[in-house]
Amino acid sequence: MYISFVNDFDDIEIKIEPAILYPANYGELIVHFNPENRNFGKISDMILLNIKFANKQHLGELIFNANIIEDFSALTPAEKANPPIISVDNKTLNLKDLNPEELRTEVIEIENKGTRDLYIRNIQTSDEGFSIVPSKFVVGPGKKKSFNITVTPNHGVSKIKSIITIISNDPEHSIIGFTIIAKVNQPAEVSSKNMLNEINIKIANSILQNSKGENDLVILDIRTEDEYNNGCIEDAVNINFYDSNFKKIIKLMDKQKTYLVYCQSGIRSKKAVELMSKMGFRKIYHMHEGIEGWKAQRLKLIDPDK
Question: Of the candidates 197, 172, 306, which has an alpha carbon nearest to the alpha carbon of residue 262?
């Protein structure tokens, strides 16, 4: 087995020892991360791996997640004895009467119960549907300040759940999570038709068998061309998730049809179906175990070139 990397990062150094693994051997993947040029807060990077075995190439994924906070080991004894203390009254926000395409802004208050200035280093969420202003500010001792969370739900989205991460200089609670939950009102004729279903391999195979010969179901393989050519589900259409035009291509597809979406292991397809749902696609099946799960069940794959 030969392993190499596809993409490079200035602040992430990765070593594979050894680069060639022989049968029954073990190796190590060593990651060195330098956060010096990164902002405070949560980061997530996808590292792509080229894995070659049995004379075939496969593309793998390594998801790198980290929370960047300040170094509290440098605090003086006096600073440790008199820290800032962050306080948020309610760490869960339930939004009611939310409507599609309707702008909603909520005000969240943060209190500093400590004796030194509380620095809010960063407030962020990975959900593109939310905006947070301001994301950085200072709260004096015994004072309160607020930030605004704004959301505009898309058509076809019936539920929202997002984690807001707050990074501060409170040594005991430098990272706190704030959860937003909402149920979006949908017109009856839309709600009944919008479905985003997480399905396992057995259900996916049943859907495919029962839909043979029908044009309403689109089987969407979002892996790379090489992965697709190494074996795909019969009649699957390949659109590479990493293609710079992926969003544009998906946007042009027929939103009235039913889609069964899969990738190699379920990571890329999860992001894809979330994107499609926001775009207004009405019925999506997500085969969350991916082709790896399909192969584990010894189900048929075809060569698309034949």
Answer: 197
Residue 14 bridge partners (DSSP): 31
| Residue 239 structure tokens | 């659109």
- How far, in Å, CA of 76 to CA of 117, rounded? 15
Which pTM does this prediction carry? 0.56
How do strand 283-287 and strand 258-262 relate by DSSP bridges? parallel
Contact 64, 31 (CB under 8 A): yes
CA–CA gap between residue 227 and residue 59 (Å, rounded): 7
Tell me the pLDDT tens digit for each residue of 115-159.
999 999 999 887 767 888 999 999 999 999 999 988 877 666 677
Mark which of 10, 34, 68 sits at the end of a domain. 68
The first and second tokens of residue 126, run together, are 């990975």
Neighbours of 48 (CB within 10 A): 14
Range of the domain at 198: 193-296
Q: Are residues 201 and 290 in the same domain?
A: yes
10, burial (CB in 10 Å: exposed 0-12, middle 13-18, buried 19+)? exposed
| Token couple for 231 | 């074996």
Give the alpha-carbon dihedral of 288, 292, 296, 301, to 10 degrees. Answer: 100
Q: How far is CA 142 from CA 77, 88, 138, 210, in A?
A: 21, 13, 12, 64
